[in-house]
Amino acid sequence: xxxxxxxxxxxxxxxxxxxxxxxxxxxxxxxxxxxxxxxxxxxxxxxxxxxxxxxxxxxxxxxxxxxxxxxxxxxxxxxxxxxxxxxxxxxxxxxxxxxxxxxxxxxxxxxxxxxxxxxxxxxxxxxxxxxxxxxxxxxxxxxxxxxxxxxxxxxxxxxxxxxxxxxxxxxxxxxxxxxxxxxxxxxxxxxxxxxxxxxxxxxxxxxxxxxxxxxxxxxxxxxxxxxxxxxxxxxxxxxxxxxxxxxxxxxxxxxxxxxxxxxxxxxxxxxxxxxxxxxxxxxx
Length: 284
Description:
There is one protein chain. The protein is an alpha/beta fold. Among the domains are: about 15-65; about 105-245, Nucleotidyltransferase, domain 5, CATH 3.30.420.10. Helix content is about 40%, strand content about 15%. The chain has helices spanning about 1-5, 10-15, 25-35, 40-50, 60-65, 145-155, 175-185, 200-215, 225-240, 250-275; strands at about 105-115, 120-130, 135-140, 165-170, 190. α4 crosses α5.
């Protein structure tokens, strides 16, 4: 028939393949970007979309983001050193950039940053569990003193007796007898970054950079109470919902739960292997 009509067989079998609509994908990207509070870039969106059964490339996500003018708050990396008092104590950098402990609540790192409240500078202080980047303690106040540190420690729900190491930079706010006595009480080893080297406390520095882009720059605070309320909401979002590239794009809480399940399974396997076999003797 094709020869009689003088057409190719390929033309006869040709079938128009309708291009799939991007409407569902576009809607999913818009929703996930909004859930991230306008923070996610293409890599994190790709991971979130995979969980919604969308397998797409970062380049395609980028095109759709450009189409709808979705711009992440993040910009190029930068570090702006500032002059401050330095702790001259002869304490070594015991952590030595080992940022991946094998168990939770073994190594905690900390630092502080500043935000503007009613045209005055206030300070925000985080305590991070280095295992899963979870913010386990936090506080905010007008002065960077030992009281700010103690307020954050009071919000920690975990047992401080399990902590082996407390790592900070050489800020003078951590150089006082109050902090020393607290660490001695819980038998926690202190570790200090080397002078003028922010990379020794890179996890804390990175956390505060994220905090400023995701929380501070787009908000205005008129009172300390207003800052504290919104800070509590941000910490909850950080711990329960924000995916982290260093955690295989899981949230800190989900990452810890996965680890706990694996530990439980291993414990069950070991107990089964070491369980003695019961035998019965039948006497005739």
